[in-house]
Amino acid sequence: MCKKIFIPFMVFFLSTVLMTGTSLANTLTASPNPARLNKTVTFKLGINFTAGICSNFFINFGDGTAPLALGNVTQDSILQATHTYTRTGVYTVTSYTNCVGIPNPSPAILSLRVSDFEIKRIETTFENGEPQITLQRNEPAPALSAKITFSGSGLLKGYWEVDGDKGQHFFKHLSIGPETIIQYPKTPALKTFIPGSHIVRFVITQPTLDIDFPELVYYVTPEDYLKISNIQILTPQPNEHLNFEPFAFTWQNIPATTVYLINIFSDKKEVPVFSAYAIKNNYALKTEFLNKFLEPEKSYSIQILGFLEDTRMSGKSEKIPFSLKK
Length: 326
Hints:
326 residues, mainly beta, Immunoglobulin-like, 3 domains, 2 helices, 8% helix, disordered N terminus
């Protein structure tokens, strides 16, 4: 009598467990997403359940190809599949299964955009055209930019990063290539009040790139930045036509300046034809130098540079053109 009662009880108990086990839940992800045309996409199906058997997991890539069987599962699992898309577009990817002992879950659904957009090269430089620059403390921050070479069209997303801190996010739809220039924003400016090395990167978040992004390095010296003053040349006046005889150059005095460098340039030449130093804000060109270095009926320009006692530049003038009579 006990035996007849015990067996049905156990059968009923086991049936209850199988039928009321935790329902399966799954998640579907793709990498990269968005995906690139003719490039491999990796799909991962995460499965979480505690009872029952689910067989014949399938993934439908949404592009008309046959669904792919992923196999059977009896415990928490991650199934993986790869696929390559040969046409651009937005695809609905689904994963589904048949379960025994637990309810079938709703299909996992993923929207995947496939484009021909691809980043070919990233080049970041400061205004000097180099990936490194040295600055004095509190010196105005230099301009910097990232040149992005690409093919196809798509949405570019990214952000500037300084010493590991994310800055303002950037996004731009690119369609006319093959390159675009991303300028570092004027605000907030780079921090130049902390001496030492600092690293700047432009990090792209879309499209997904598995690369080490190039780094810019700027070094801030402990010396305080000295603003270069504009030296105003008083004589000669711009485009003045001077007699070919001894004359004097005069200019505005810059406080704390201990020496001035006078450079005279021949027309359209970068190397001075005559240079001299002065400790005051004037210089008289003597006859011997006039005859030796300059010629009548020719055009010249003059530029003045000022220096402090520690040799740092304190001032600089524009090049002022003048000419000499016969």
